[in-house]
Amino acid sequence: MPSEPLKIVIADDDLKLVEAVQSYFDRTGFYKIFVSNSGQEALSLIHKIKPDVIILEKKLPDIDGLELCHQLKADEKTEQIPIIFLTAHDDIVDRVLGLESGASDYITKPFSLRELEARIKVVLRNWSEKQRPEQHAANDEAAKGGFGDSIAVLFDFPEEVRVPCEQYLLYFGQFLRDLGVQAISDLSHEAGQVLFTVKPTDPRTALDKVRAALDVYLSLPTSPVSDPTHNEIAVQRLEASVLRLQSDLRLASAELQAKNMTIEAQQPSFKHRKAY
């Protein structure tokens, strides 16, 4: 960790949430939290202290979080600061808009403070590697397993569905190859969560293209499968992966429901117990 605390600006009008975040990070001694309850106040604060990371709520009292993100990314004085959206809006469109506005990550409420800290670490690691000269980044990546030319995303899968969800993530490599992008993907575990990284083998490949492909890929299991009889092998392969995940999730849900019913049936009934 750095010798001086990392400066983090959090812009959110939820006072209880802000207080919890500030209390958690202040205890570590590694972070200095600066709080703002409005977009305009956050904008002034960011220009004043030049934070290492910005955490934004999408809906702020005065300036929309997306608009604030656009302003920060359009300003050469703040465009390099990583931004993480922390919001209750879980719609796929909101996620895409947030990432397209220049944000490095998008976390939905409710969330765990450990998850937030882990994602901040990943964002800072990605950003620091991106800013290094290319020749140094290549050497450091080999020595430290860095994320210089890759995308890293944290997932928090329920234990009951972790295996099929992880398997589905691994199929993303084939999805990219079918799109003409050669990449290496990897799964690891960090802070009790799944860290998924994707690194194109060609350094000229735009990471924005890979991220957009991942956003589409993650939204497919919630969408109806178009045509299982499609003739193209790539489409059949993708639809098979989606159907396999959907089937595994339904099975896991049924097993969990059956387990809960068994537990409820085994619990003693106080309703019919006599009073003595």
Describe the structure.
This protein is of the alpha/beta class and 276 residues long. It folds into two domains: 7-144, Rossmann fold, CATH 3.40.50.2300; 149-264, no CATH class. The chain is built from ten helices and eight strands. The strands form two sheets. It has a five-stranded parallel beta sheet, sandwiched between helices. α3 (65-74) links the parallel β3 and β4 (83-87). The radius of gyration is 22 Å and the shape is globular. The protein starts with 5 loop residues before the first strand and ends in a 10-residue tail after the last helix. Residues 133-148 and 270-276 have low confidence and may be disordered.
How many β-strand runs?
8
Work out the radius of gyration: 22 Å
Mean pLDDT comes to 78
- Share of β-strand residues: 15-25%
Morphology call: globular
Largest sheet: 5 strands, parallel
Number of helices: 10
Assembly of the depicted chains: single chain
The helix/strand series, from N terminus to C terminus, equals EHEHEHEHEHHEHHEEHH
Sequence of strands across the biggest β-sheet: 2-1-3-4-5
Give the distance, in angstroms, between the N- and C-terminal Cα atoms: 63 Å
Helix proportion range:
40-55%
- Detail the poorly predicted runs: 133-148, 270-276
Short description:
With 276 residues, the protein is of the alpha/beta class. The protein is built from ten helices and eight strands.
Give the SSE layout.
Layout (H helix, E strand, L loop, with lengths): L5 E6 L3 H14 L2 E6 L2 H11 L3 E4 L8 H10 L8 E5 L4 H9 L4 E4 L4 H19 L2 H11 L6 E5 L6 H9 L1 H7 L4 E8 L2 E8 L6 H13 L13 H34 L10
Parallel strand pairs: 1-2, 1-3, 3-4, 4-5
Antiparallel strand pairs: 6-8, 7-8
